[in-house]
């Protein structure tokens, strides 16, 4: 906005905005600071802010005693796997709805969205029993499939809104030039769709990484991702704040960084294109 | 113009997604409906049989149910109030000409990327704990008695935690909507001498109306399903003070192994979620036509 404002006003607003932002960010900052303290320093009264003996011992301990990396690996496999599987199903679906819309396309999209609104807890028992019966409980493949299904409507929607922005004239021009459906998808559509697909992937990985209902209820040990790992800290033994902080910092760091890069896409993906 | 062949191809490309979602929606829901009419306790599997609506009457008649409905309502309304009002104020603030708008934005949206168990446990232990938490230290520094947040005001504390998680979402969406407002209109109003509050009330708020609607509806869908935040902080207690509908159904199913009653509760939850969903679909559908 090119409105002229007095420097005093700008300085005041800046101070206020930074104050609010730091307040909101504070719990995360405090967690990161605590992760570098000893357990005794972590609960010291009064609280130690910056001038304590910084240590990385907690990070080492969390890995050595609780096998952090195993859970991390499960999180990666589940997030990436469910996203890849979701794309495989969603790209063709979104493509066909965007470029060959039928009379029912709108209804179909709305119906897909409605599946997202089913309360997870209502189907927890059937899913759990089906998982037991099929031997999928506490397996990565089981979680990959479930997370793919719960995020599928979002992937389809997001891709659909991106694909719809690709001008249909370009496709027609390609068709006139005698391009087959295959080469049309491969050489015309795909390059134009890549940015949209990349945003979709990013958002979906974030959502899958942080999903905490199914990942916690359907796993015990083998397939347990970081959500389950962190939850295991809810019944602590002894001093644990610093270790909890270290484990938490490692659990959120990769996603936080990805999230910062995907602010714009986030709005679009999470509002199903209603706010751009 | 699409040819016959491309139409057929399109149908084929669409079918896997449709079939998968259809199965995912219908099979578990049908099973839940079936269980809801059965006496089915995992701890006493031999006493099974069709009981008509007895699970529903058991679920709906229990005092825990009405408390859970009330708690759910308080949780959803409380979080919505904080996030929408806070979101508007913060979005307006960030939209001002300030130094470092980018970094401010980054700090503000960060909590949204924190996984629920991390958010809940950090707040529970390091901020709200009555002996070691930072809030307790602050209270003591001010010469006050430390307050046991999760013990004395469990629902309020959970609202605070969840609002912290969702405030960035509301802010980000409202900010996006705010930035799409044409500055000419605002400048014209400013030239005409309209005071800031009037400009906000008559130009900005109407412009934000749809974004606010979307925020409210999407958050409601997610907030109705909140479980982990309650599970790792209060476990629904003390007593049932922080038990929501979702947590009650979870408790019946997992902790009490009473599948029948839990299924009946699940059906009730589906009905309630559907009521919200109808409004959400209408808001989003409108945008599809535009």
Q: Quick summary of this structure?
A:
Chain A is an all-alpha fold. Chain A has 13 helices and no strands. Chain B has a two-stranded antiparallel ribbon.
Please tell me about this protein's structure.
By secondary structure, chain A is an all-alpha fold. Chain A is built from 13 helices and no strands. Chain A folds into two domains: 53 residues, no CATH class; 204 residues, MetI-like (MetI-like fold, Orthogonal Bundle), CATH 1.10.3720.10. Chain A is 72% helix and 0% strand. Chain A is globular and about 75 Å long. Chain B has a single domain, classed as MetI-like (MetI-like fold). Helices cover 76% and strands 1% of the residues of chain B. In chain B, strands 1-2 form a two-stranded antiparallel sheet. The longest helix of chain B has 33 residues. Chain B starts with a helix and ends with a helix. The mean pLDDT of chain B is 87. The interface between A and B is large, with 98 and 111 residues.
List the helices and strands and how they pair.
The complex is a heterodimer of chains A (276) and B (290).
Chain A: H1 7-35, H2 39-42, H3 57-66, H4 68-99, H5 105-115, H6 124-134, H7 140-163, H8 168-176, H9 181-210, H10 214-217, H11 226-231, H12 241-261, H13 263-270
Helix pairs in contact in A: 1-12, 3-12, 4-7, 4-9, 5-7, 7-9, 8-9
Chain B: H1 4-36, E1 38-39, E2 49-50, H2 54-61, H3 63-95, H4 101-109, H5 116-127, H6 134-141, H7 149-152, H8 154-179, H9 183-191, H10 196-224, H11 228-233, H12 245-255, H13 259-289
Antiparallel strand pairs in B: 1-2
């Amino acid at each position: 906005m090119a409105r002229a404002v007095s420097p005093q006003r700008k300085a005041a607003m800046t101070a206020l905005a930074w104050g609010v932002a730091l307040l909101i960010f504070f719990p995360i900052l405090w967690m990161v600071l605590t992760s570098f303290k000893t357990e005794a320093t972590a609960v010291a009264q009064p609280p130690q802010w910056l001038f304590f003996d910084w240590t990385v011992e907690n990070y080492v301990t969390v890995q050595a005693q609780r096998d952090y990396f195993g859970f991390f690996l499960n999180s990666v496999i589940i997030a990436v796997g469910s996203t890849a599987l979701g794309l495989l199903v969603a790209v063709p679906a979104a493509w066909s709805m965007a470029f060959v819309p039928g009379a029912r396309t709108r209804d179909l999209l709305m119906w897909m969205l409605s599946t997202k609104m089913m309360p997870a807890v209502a189907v927890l028992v059937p899913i759990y029993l089906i998982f037991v019966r099929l031997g999928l409980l506490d397996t990565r493949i089981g979680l990959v499939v479930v997370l793919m299904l719960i995020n599928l409507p979002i992937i389809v929607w997001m891709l659909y809104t991106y694909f719809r922005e690709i001008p249909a004239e370009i496709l027609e021009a390609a068709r006139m030039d005698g391009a087959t459906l295959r080469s049309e998808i491969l050489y015309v559509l795909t390059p134009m769709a890549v940015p949209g697909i990349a945003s979709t992937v990013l958002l979906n990985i974030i959502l899958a990484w942080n999903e905490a209902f199914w990942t916690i209820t359907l796993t015990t040990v083998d397939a347990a991702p970081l959500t389950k790992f962190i939850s295991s800290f809810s019944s602590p033994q002894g001093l644990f704040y610093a270790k909890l902080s270290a484990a938490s910092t490692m659990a959120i760091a990769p996603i936080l960084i990805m999230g910062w890069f995907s602010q714009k896409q986030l709005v679009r993906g999470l509002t199903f294109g209603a706010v751009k | 113009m699409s040819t016959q062949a491309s139409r057929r191809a399109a149908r084929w490309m669409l079918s896997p997604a449709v079939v998968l979602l259809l199965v995912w929606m219908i099979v578990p829901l049908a099973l839940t409906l079936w269980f809801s009419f059965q006496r089915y306790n995992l701890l006493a599997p031999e006493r099974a049989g069709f009981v008509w609506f007895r699970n529903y009457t058991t679920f709906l008649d229990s005092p825990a149910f009405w408390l859970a409905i009330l708690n759910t309502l308080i949780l959803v309304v409380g979080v919505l109030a904080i996030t929408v009002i806070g979101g508007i104020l913060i979005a307006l603030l960030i939209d001002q000409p300030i130094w470092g708008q980018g970094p401010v934005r980054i700090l503000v949206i960060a909590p949204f990327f924190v996984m629920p168990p991390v958010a809940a446990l950090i707040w529970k232990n390091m901020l709200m704990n009555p002996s070691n938490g930072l809030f307790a230290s602050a209270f003591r520094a001010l010469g006050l008695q430390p307050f046991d947040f999760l013990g004395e005001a469990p629902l309020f504390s959970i609202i605070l935690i969840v609002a912290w998680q969702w405030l960035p979402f509301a802010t980000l969406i409202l900010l996006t909507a705010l930035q799409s407002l044409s500055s000419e209109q605002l400048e014209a109003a400013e030239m005409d001498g309209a005071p800031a509050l009037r400009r906000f009330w008559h130009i900005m708020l109407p412009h934000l109306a749809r974004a606010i609607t979307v925020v409210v509806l999407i958050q409601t869908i997610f907030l109705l399903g909140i479980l982990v935040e309650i599970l790792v902080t209060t476990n629904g207690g003390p007593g049932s003070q922080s038990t929501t509908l979702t947590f009650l159904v979870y408790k019946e199913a997992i902790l009490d192994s009473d599948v029948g009653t839990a299924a009946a509760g699940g059906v009730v939850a589906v009905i309630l979620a559907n009521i919200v969903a109808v409004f959400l679909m209408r808001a989003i559908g409108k945008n599809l036509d535009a």
